[in-house]
Write a structure and sequence with these properties.
By secondary structure, the chain is α/β, with parallel strands linked by helices. The protein has 10 helices and 6 strands. Strand 1, helix 1 and strand 2 form a beta-alpha-beta unit.
Amino acid sequence: MTSPNPEPIRTLIADDQEAVRRSVRRILDAQPDITVVGEAADGLAALELAAELRPDVALVDIRMPRMDGLELTRRLAAPGAVTPVRVVVLTTFDLDEYVYPALRHGASGFLLKRSGPALLAEAVRAAAGGESLISPSVTVRLLQHVTAPRRVDRRAAPAAPLTEREVEIAGQVAAGRTNADIAAELFISPGTVKTHVASIQRKLGVQNRVGIAVHAWEMGYAVPSAQ
């Protein structure tokens, strides 16, 4: 039975600009299911607060003193993290040099600061639920890489090979489709999709669906997104 009053999503904000932290806190604290438990002005302070407060989700800026957002994301979200926290990168910059490392380090989302309050709250909810949300403009650029001519780097292949069905599902995940969408497309149950997704994550050594998507993009079997 579902609790009528679930615990709010505990969120940590890491950004070196006080005005940004204040704005993000105002947006998130206005949500009935999200609460901000801490703020940090640099990456090292955020790492320490994460260990102390154990938030569900951390909103992380890329450019911060002492420890940048990419390293903080790796410390919090990469496989084997000492203090595992789901990370949503929130930044002004959507450069490839930021997007790809952040996703490879285990980020559950990548949002631009201009994305707006609704998308910000949804990204936090998605991360807390084990899903992912990426700014539409960033997604378009990622999909452009899917169709761009490239040589596949076989070093990116997992140690345990994916089955044909897992490859198929990973490609669907890379297109941003939900378990229900994939189940309908492949005529299987959502529970079966969930089991396959868990197996794919284990074989690839990734934390979430974004990690699966990155692998599918790199290996060239991401399916086209719905138009």
